[in-house]
Write a structure and sequence with these properties.
110 residues, alpha+beta, two-stranded antiparallel ribbon, two-stranded parallel sheet, 4 helices, elongated
Length: 110
C-alpha cells in the first residue's frame, strides 16, 4: 500500500468525521478517488474587492506561502476586451506578488 501525504490523510479523516461541512473544502483529484486539501489561501468569493485589490491582498499571502492558489478573477457578463485582460495581467504582474491568476466566467470572444 502506498504511503499517503498529510493533506490526503487529514482530508480523508475529516470527511469521515465531519462529512457535511468537510465537503465544502475537501477536494478530489480529477480521475481518481483520492482526497486532498487545496494548498494556499484565498479570499472568499464574495469579498467585495475589485480584482486588482483582491490581487494585492492575495499577493501578500502568496509572498509568505510556499504554495498558493491563483487569484480568482471574475470576468464580466459580456465578453471582455482582450486589451483589458492583457492590461489587467500586466498590472497584476507589476503591482502585486500574486503567483497566478485564474479567470472565472464566460470567455466568449477571446
Amino acid at each position: 500500500m502506498a504511503e499517503i501525504g498529510g493533506g490526503q490523510r487529514f482530508a480523508t479523516l475529516d470527511l469521515q468525521q465531519f462529512s457535511q461541512s468537510a465537503r465544502r473544502t475537501v477536494k478530489t483529484t480529477p480521475g481518481t478517488p483520492a482526497l486532498h486539501y487545496t494548498s494556499g489561501a484565498r479570499l472568499p468569493d464574495a469579498h467585495g474587492l475589485t480584482p486588482i485589490e483582491a490581487s494585492r491582498f492575495e499577493g501578500e499571502l502568496h509572498a509568505r506561502l510556499s504554495t498558493a492558489d491563483p487569484v480568482m478573477v471574475p470576468l464580466p457578463d459580456g465578453p471582455p476586451a482582450p486589451d483589458a485582460v492583457a492590461d489587467f495581467i500586466t498590472k497584476a504582474w507589476r503591482q502585486t506578488e500574486v503567483t497566478g491568476i485564474r479567470f472565472s466566467g464566460p470567455i466568449v470572444g477571446i
